[in-house]
What we know:
Helix content is 56%, strand content 13%. By secondary structure, the protein is of the alpha+beta class.
Amino acid sequence: MTDLPPIAQLDPNIAALLAQLWRAASSGGQPWSLARLAKQSGLGMSTLLRCLHQLAELELARMEIQDNGRGRAWLSEEGLACCREWFDASDQN
């Protein structure tokens, strides 16, 4: 994991979403709804979905979307490891 870019070098939308997914994982590990993630990260739903699809392609996040458009998302094991490195390191500074 040492070859990760600093969190500050990521797309701001991706960084905001990762921060909220990390927050969800750190506060009990339950997946958050897409609506809650959008509100907490300050992203519109289309931007949120685009970012989640990118993170899913990179195998950093997982998501479930129902036919009615509701859904939830969470960090994968790889995403947890990356966020632990990014956010725990930034907390220590």
